[in-house]
């Protein structure tokens, strides 16, 4: 950057002996990334804006994402600290922190990509290896044993075939929306602008049978049917597997196993 600025300034003002410095009035902050330009202290020279970060290649139109912003969220996903905690660390270090909305937007994108990547990895590499092993053992390769549990918003399904218990499907559900009109209406999307909620206000967040059914239907689309369901005694997830079988949507009779320590 500075080599280009020096050459350009010399060509524009060859007799100027001013000092080149950052033009702080023009700087732009984007998450943890910055865009800057240089100016001369004597003449009117001002350079173009330079990205002080690397961009992520993308085929979409518009500004490309900064690697530092995506890398930050990848790191936060592997640590117990949250966005708020990271911003406190920045402020305590006298570093301008990224905005909450910007970090949340990037976190949503990273979470979705991570979920798809883990799901694809299971249904391709791990799934094919598991099917080969089942064929060797003379077992049905198109069924899978799972264990499940539901927290407040995300419903997760993990395979119960290996000691790793890898998550093979995640179903995030939320009623939260920053739009005031959504809090007084009942259905998703009844207000102008984007809606971050994906279930209606009157829906029960604890309806495990409904969320489990959606997860099992997605697994069915990937060629997997639920065989053994291991879950806690107060869960209704097993009913989802039973209803799919009774309706003829699956051909594998589900077996239910209850565990008191989940």
From TrEMBL:
<feature type="domain" description="Mutator-like transposase">
    <location>
        <begin position="1"/>
        <end position="243"/>
    </location>
</feature>
<dbReference type="InterPro" id="IPR049012">
    <property type="entry name" value="Mutator_transp_dom"/>
</dbReference>
<dbReference type="Pfam" id="PF20700">
    <property type="entry name" value="Mutator"/>
</dbReference>
<feature type="compositionally biased region" description="Basic and acidic residues">
    <location>
        <begin position="121"/>
        <end position="131"/>
    </location>
</feature>
<feature type="region of interest" description="Disordered">
    <location>
        <begin position="110"/>
        <end position="139"/>
    </location>
</feature>
<protein>
    <recommendedName>
        <fullName>Mutator-like transposase domain-containing protein</fullName>
    </recommendedName>
</protein>
């Amino acid at each position: 950057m500075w080599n280009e600025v020096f050459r350009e300034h010399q060509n524009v003002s060859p007799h100027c002996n001013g000092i080149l410095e950052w033009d702080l009035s023009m700087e732009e902050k984007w998450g943890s990334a910055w865009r800057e330009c240089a100016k001369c202290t004597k003449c009117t020279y001002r350079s173009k804006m330079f990205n002080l970060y690397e961009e992520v290649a993308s085929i979409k139109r518009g500004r490309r994402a900064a690697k530092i912003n995506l890398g930050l969220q990848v790191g936060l996903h592997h640590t117990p600290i949250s966005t708020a905690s990271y911003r406190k660390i920045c402020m305590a270090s006298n570093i301008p922190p990224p905005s909450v909305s910007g970090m949340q937007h990037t976190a949503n994108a990273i979470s979705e990509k991570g979920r798809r990547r883990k799901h694809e990895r299971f249904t391709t590499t791990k799934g094919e290896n598991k099917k080969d092993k089942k064929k060797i053992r003379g077992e049905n390769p198109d069924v899978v044993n799972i264990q499940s549990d539901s927290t407040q918003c995300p419903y997760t399904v993990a395979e119960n075939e290996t000691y790793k218990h890898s998550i093979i499907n995640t179903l995030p559900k939320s009623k939260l929306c920053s739009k005031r009109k959504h809090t007084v209406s009942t259905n998703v999307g009844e207000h102008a602008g984007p809606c971050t909620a994906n279930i209606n206000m009157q829906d029960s967040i604890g309806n495990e049978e409904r969320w489990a059914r959606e997860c099992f239907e997605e697994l069915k689309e990937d060629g997997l049917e639920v065989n053994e369901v291991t879950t806690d005694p107060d869960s209704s997830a097993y009913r989802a597997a039973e209803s799919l079988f009774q309706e003829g949507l699956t051909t594998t009779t589900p077996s239910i196993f209850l565990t008191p320590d989940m």
